[in-house]
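ugh ok so i messed up the first submission bc i forgot one of the chains. this is the corrected input, ALL of the components this time, i swear. 700 residues overall. if the numbers dont match what u have on ur side tell me asap before i send this to the collaborators (the ones from the other lab, u know who)
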Amino acid sequence: MTAMTAQAATLDDVKARGELNCVVTTGVAGFAAPDENGRWEGFDVDFCRAVAAAVLGDAEKVKFIPTTGKTRFTVLNSGEGDILFRNTTETLSRDADLKLTFLPVNYYDGQGFLIRKELGVNSAKELDGASICIQTGTTTELNLADFFRVNNISYEPVAIETNEEGIANYSANRCDVYTTDASGLASTRAALEDPSAHIILPEIISKEPLAGAVRQGDEQWADIGKWVVNALIAAEEAGVTQANVAELAAAAGDNPDINRLLGTEGNMGEMLGLDAQWAVRAISAVGNYGESFNRHIGPDTPIGLERGLNAQWKDGGILYAAPIR
Amino acid sequence: MNETTQQYKPGEHPDLPPPRNLVGPVAWVRDHLLSSPTNIVLTFLCVWFLIKVIPPVLDWAFLDAVFTGEDRNACRAQGDGACWAFISERFKLFTYGFYPESEHWRVNLAFILLIAALVPILYDKTPFRKYGLYFSAAYPFIAGYLLLGGDFLFLSLTPVPTTQFGGFMLTLVVGITGIAFSLPIGILLALGRQSKLPIIKVFCVAFIEFIRGVPLITLLFVASTMLSYFLPPGSNFDLLLRVLIMVTLFASGYMAEVIRGGLQAIPKGQTEAADAMGLKYWQSMRLIVLPQALKISIPGIVNTFIGLYKDTTLVIIIGLLDPLGIGRASLSDTKWTGLSNEVYLFVAIFFFLSCFFMSRYSLYLEKKLETGHKR
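and heres the new structure output, hopefully the right one now
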């Protein structure tokens, strides 16, 4: 088993194949979903494309493998997928027991509550006796139980299976509150008949750091995934965008950070087993972290998520890319 | 009133029309809708129910519906009915899945050939039926090549990986492959189960009971996840092929039991008579037993077909996007979230049409083959 999962040289396989197999969801609004022409679009999808651009030189050479929550890790571990960007919370058991190596967190999520405005509730602690729609068999169910026990208040669970069922039940008034990850709540709210009649309560009751992952045992490949994510975050921090990346990469400038990132100084790409232009290609394919965020899930999209925790550390968030040097 | 007074010889009086209150719409209404107090109450309840239900549904589906628009907000701005713009925008995705657009003609051609291949099988008065049946037998391979592409003799088509199959096309591929292969395998299993050779019999019984004891979802999971662990790393056994094999084997197990029911309804005298005529085992099966057994089993066989066809939606669990999967994925597109009614209705209509066709055809076949065994 270990011999199999520890197959090294994923990089060589990907190069030989000429295509990156990227594990995504079967559809989560804003993160990964096919558009009218069957082209996958979304925040997670952008990271797949960035890796393909860095490794293969072409952001379109990605084969997306849609997976459900149950099949995602086997698809990765069996070698069908090379890398996973699938709304996946990083946890100890997944890291250690399922033999994954997690990449840097690309979205900090947490569980929240959606409720009708007319009920006049302003805090989750006032939810005593409320009926709550909750997806069974998820970590959100356990988080919810913990939260209400700690606060010594009671609730009445309404068990549902899928997010759509949750929306249907909530809009038919069969539960007062719907709880799931905050990123999901925002898009749920946007899909309701009258979004302004509903609010998302300020409490976030769990930590859900969503991160990409690769198989354990191929350090070089894990490094590539890790530093592509870091490069996109660092690019935003340094002010490198899709529009100006070509210009900045043309010649070494005054900012050594940018020079190292864009390969005009040092040999960062070579250390990863790639060429000097790896980050340039990734950034020109999908833009920096903030551009991708705003394009798919930011305030101007129907999902309308604020940066919040996902702002750069300089702007009060916790996005903090390790230095590329 | 000349006719009534006219004199006839005994026995030559022409038939009179029935009394007026026994024919015509009024009589029909009285007979079928208002024949007893219970029926009267039920009739009025039904009428009230229809009046309550039909106008809102019509309003929603047609009168207030929006057929063109850029996104959900554009739909909502134009009317509060169904937003069919969503479906029409994504019709291609629903039909072809992720199949490359420039190669769509291959799917269309395979579909047209499918009809050409079905006609000789389904309709026994097709001209040149014999040659048509040869074509039908070759069809799965022709269609397979058309859809997959690659180099074959002097032909060369762009290869399309099966991971890009999706939508209705995927349903048809899985459904038709399952249907086409499960019937012959099912017949063999049913015969094997009655075999006097112990090894064959034990194998068939074990296989059938295993299939019947395990849910299809489990088999699909094994196909999608476990197999990759058993196979040597790097070997890439196509996911769709695995699914096709599992679905076919699953349907075969059920098919075998349906056909066994038919076989058991054939009196022993039939086989004995065939033996007395000097027919070998396969001859007596082919000429005497199976034609009768299969005829009796038609409803059960079609039932299994329809079940199999609808079970193809389960492939979403292993990440293949059939129409339902495409629908769900489409609902995640931020431009269109919240339009689940339209999607599910659309997919339901597709499945209803296909299944209704199968079920009507089976009725037609039963009527056609009903030769003297009517009970």
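quick check: Chain B touches chain A through 40 residues (CB under 8 Å). that seems consistent at least. Residues 15-63 of chain B form one domain.
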